Batch of 2 targets.
Target 1
Amino acid sequence: MESTREWAEKQDLEDPLSVFRKEFALPTGVIQLNGNSLGPLPRAVPDALDEVVRHQWGEHLIRAWSEDGWWDAPVRVGDRIGRLIGAGAGRTVVGESTSVQLFNAVTAAARLRPDRPVLVSDSTNFPTDRYLATSVARLLGLRLIETPMGELGEVLRRYRGEVGAILCGAVDFRTGELWDISRTTADIHAAGGIAVWDLSHAAGAVPLDVDAAGVDLAVGCGYKYLSGGPGAPAFLYSAARHHDTLDLPLTGWHGHARPFDMADEFVPASGIDRARTGTPHVLSLLALEAALEPLEAAGVAAVRRKSLRLGDYLTRLVAEPSDASGAPGSDRGLEVVTPSAHDRRGNHITLRHARAPEVSAALMERGVVTDSRPPDLLRLCLNGLYVSHTDVFDAVATLRDVLREVPRAGEVAG
Amino acid sequence: MESTREWAEKQDLEDPLSVFRKEFALPTGVIQLNGNSLGPLPRAVPDALDEVVRHQWGEHLIRAWSEDGWWDAPVRVGDRIGRLIGAGAGRTVVGESTSVQLFNAVTAAARLRPDRPVLVSDSTNFPTDRYLATSVARLLGLRLIETPMGELGEVLRRYRGEVGAILCGAVDFRTGELWDISRTTADIHAAGGIAVWDLSHAAGAVPLDVDAAGVDLAVGCGYKYLSGGPGAPAFLYSAARHHDTLDLPLTGWHGHARPFDMADEFVPASGIDRARTGTPHVLSLLALEAALEPLEAAGVAAVRRKSLRLGDYLTRLVAEPSDASGAPGSDRGLEVVTPSAHDRRGNHITLRHARAPEVSAALMERGVVTDSRPPDLLRLCLNGLYVSHTDVFDAVATLRDVLREVPRAGEVAG
């Protein structure tokens, strides 16, 4: 009987991933359903960072660039993230913020189609993607067409022969809807375009195979499902076929073919090294590296399977009457926004409620960490790596309590 | 008699800044003369970072963005760096790498003079500055003129009415030569241009007053004289008079006027907040913040006075005969490249030697950390905050030992 806490506890006892929960420093009394915004602290990180700071920086000083592998870290960590997204070695590099990497990737993508005057940008994407696409279009003198992902096919037809780069979000940050990367990329290629994917809400959450899907360029965030810590550096992926012609605007000296020649002219390095920018933020970068271990050990596929189960469980609980006399979820002003089909959703479930910001704040006060997005969306991230069935049960129970207190819009608190 | 170690020890005993040496975790048996590349570990950093990681991230999760001041950190740390460079509050922001900030600053500077077709770039600047200036010129369709700082006046005359932005290095990373920021900026303004300064080798090393000097925009490095750790985030300064019109290309969501509205259009924040980019690298950023304390306590002016004394001392020792029968420095193939005048040099002293890379490697083996720059320059950074007279004495003694073993170019090792 899954509407009891005992049922949830039993699932957790039988859960092969439950061993990974202890790899995260989850605060007592807190249910972390916000890993799509900031992943929790992996236990390995503090000691790893202390070693980097006290031993490598403190004792080795500049020798650490070679002896401790700092110089190679952007591509070494890139390769580790690459394995999590289906990228072969030497196709992923880590550094800077997601916004900066988006700028770099979209500019380079548009330059791969210099004769195409239109840049397409997913209008449902996270705002920073849209702002940077706008900036690139302006700098390159391109016409910017914004379209929701669902209408991309129509845009590709309408601007056939004109569309160069297309910036797409893999998972809708609001609704949690997952797009078909492989099919969409094929459609983009059929139209002669270059597909740039923002994988921020997909990397580490959903099994990806960017190589097989033919993705041209991709960018993603280090601090959501990768749990790399606040503001962890972002990653940039480029298909190997583009490496020789990738013409990136952020020509920092670490991307030079021979950086220590200190040469007059920028000569891009071969391979993905050309997408290095300036000196990497070593402390943030190596915290991210240490954070990857539990996810690598569990495997994205297994985490995904459990996350989907948790999502199904949550949506069923939300729809249940709260007690024998209670009304089902929809009567509490809640609506599940995220598609129920497994192949059409990421790892967060979005609920619509007219007072989502208040609900999220009230949940936070009661130790359930979620967030809201304007105007009326409540997001609950179910990362199977550390979220349990019991967490979901308790979170929904708390949500019911909160909804008894937070009136629906239009109602007056009684 | 300053050619004795006793003399150096006496100077250290009388040195009011000697108390700050213990604020840095200097490895035993190592003389750190490389703070212009990577400042040593300030003792306050490991515990501060551990608090950020275990307590703030680990326990507060996303609440730390407000409760622990993460959201404000880019401008809060910016203001602290601002005080070190003579910038009033609200004019400096921290984030990303120096290369990225250069791109952002130079693009915005050129856009402040949309009718000017020429971008000028200091040809003696660090390579990344030159590469990014090249990239900006290409994106904006500007003609790039590269000139050594000493010939800038001539370039401003030749391209009168055409020059928009000028990217200058405050301290020559090779020779250690310091340029007159105030006078050069006045010359640039007289020509109708916008002065962008790279302060990487000046911030924290040389007393600066960017506000009084009329600097338009400036960028600098967090891990040299600010000792913020490997790849510490860079800073960007903008004069307040430009804030309303500053049109930056890296329009990340943190620079939005109302970032949590998640609005369709980028509306830049007022003030320096518009120069925020993506989510800041909190771990690297807060390590930098903790690192600033000793420098703030000592004051840049006092550190500079001592650094100049150390530089004078080093150049005198280098010129001395090594012993009663020895030859002076110049006969060992050494030449002091850095100007001797205090108002014309930064805080590193550059020596020319035909085999500088070998000399630097041999010094490193003996615990004296320096570096070399192609083709023949050896750099010794004298940061008065933690370098002592005894360090200088011992380093020069070691240099003499090394030079007995490393033959000059053209000679065959005996």
Target 2
Amino acid sequence: MKKLINSPESVVSDALRGMAAAHPGLRVEAEKGIVTRAAGAAGEPTGKVAVLSGGGSGHEPLHAGFVGRGMLAAAVAGPVFTSPVPDTIAAATCAVDAGAGVLHIVKNYTGDILNFTMAAEDCEDEGVKVEQVVVDDDVAVARTEHGPGRRGTGATLFVEKIAGALAEEGAPLAEVAAVARKVNANARSYGVALSSCTTPAKGSPNFTLGEDEIELGIGIHGEPGRERRTLMTAAETAEAMLDAILDDLPEAAGAPVILLVNGLGGTPPVELYIMRAEVERVLGERGITVARSLVGNYVTSLDMAGCTLTLCRADEELLRLWDAPVDTPSLRWGC
Amino acid sequence: MKKLINSPESVVSDALRGMAAAHPGLRVEAEKGIVTRAAGAAGEPTGKVAVLSGGGSGHEPLHAGFVGRGMLAAAVAGPVFTSPVPDTIAAATCAVDAGAGVLHIVKNYTGDILNFTMAAEDCEDEGVKVEQVVVDDDVAVARTEHGPGRRGTGATLFVEKIAGALAEEGAPLAEVAAVARKVNANARSYGVALSSCTTPAKGSPNFTLGEDEIELGIGIHGEPGRERRTLMTAAETAEAMLDAILDDLPEAAGAPVILLVNGLGGTPPVELYIMRAEVERVLGERGITVARSLVGNYVTSLDMAGCTLTLCRADEELLRLWDAPVDTPSLRWGC
């Protein structure tokens, strides 16, 4: 295992110390894994709904990089690829409640759902209103009646941005939760890997791929994919990924979308921009307009090489909230 | 070679098509490799000095990601790790000259110096005033009387930001060039690699490192480093890197610095933040205050795993220009 770390045990707290040093707009409790807004201009919301997210670490800048005005009030960071414990989630929730309640944005993994649900119950006992919104955008997992259902991946960023914008405007908790669910309902993601990630604790790759292989439909925790193919061109890769997404989002034809071309940690900007070009081409051929887009490392999977694509069908409301000012370490505009 | 590309030949033009799709604020001539500002609010400077940079591709977002208000007027992208030709540099220079002259920011590599110098001569013949500033911040290369001298790496970003800010204020060419040289004189960089990059044309790594090896003093084109060691902790790595930098910048003690913790393409945010934490600790122990900092992929080396550190000793003038509004795809604040 080759990583710039001190020890597998201290990866999360060390990285959070680095975020604290890098971003004065954050208040970071590195040992607890709680990140909130520092007081001041881009400071804590007052009398507004607080939007909170969190989950296992290893996906940076998700979630702590999105704490700030117009987006999250707090992020809770668990160990690598492991949910934070209910006590920590509850502590962060109570800390940021400004009287209007707290929205929990939770990626759909069994441990996260369990722990956020328990934390919410504890908070409700303390008189803090909590709504939970589950993100389950990964079309690589089939929708079934049973089982944990689809994984939450890149759409989390869209849900956090748009719900955070509505909360910043002072909307009540039910409305903020409703727009978050609307984003999730209109968003789909799909990922490919050229290499596996290596978790610091295990020290070896979760899976291995041959020199000429690409894995389609991977998860952001090194979960195996849907199928393995011989390495394709960027054009073919974009087509395969968008086929999977659009098969599941047929109403997208003709509607504008918000697009995320997301690096998984080990893939450089030059390749992500090549994928961005191919996505533009394929969507254009299918009559879909990209209204807004992001390209970069937003929801990583440690050092995995590869990328995910997320499309969110957007109406005027979602575009307006997407464009609203945001001032966080990793998303910043209009502020 | 595992990359999300279409072909080695089309890497640069495909990536530029992606930048065009992603960033409406850019005007991109993908085949020529010229990126300028789109007209409009964040559009072309009028009557102001135009700041232009460029060089081989493979370092994205450098340089095209820094085109926009408060920074570059134009970026010229050559083939991967290869200087653009003089004709292209000259065409871009003439296109962005608004009557006040053009500053060329050139990383210190033989091909770049040669081609930018020839382009400048062609422009002067056309009546366009050009000043050239050379960036040579990499302390891994010894200062010698002979030879090409030190390589230009991370400090290029600082020079582009600060010169761009002064140009935006309407300062004359001589002053913009002077502040650019001042930044370079006060900046030092050092890089380490955990893996080599693989150029698309060659298809195999430039060098190979053992499973437990780290290479110190590498360049951003896969140039070999100063020494090879057994993999160290992030703390030890930061100490070794800052030793090399501070040995060359002794006056830094006590002065505030602007810091760049830069990913080389294959290293994820979580590791860069761990390095950021260790840099904060080491500099703190040596009485150096980090006044401003960036953490992320800014000056990459294709898919290389590793990072570079850049420190720039900053007085009030440099901090003021650093803080000035900037609106580019990859740096944006205050706009």
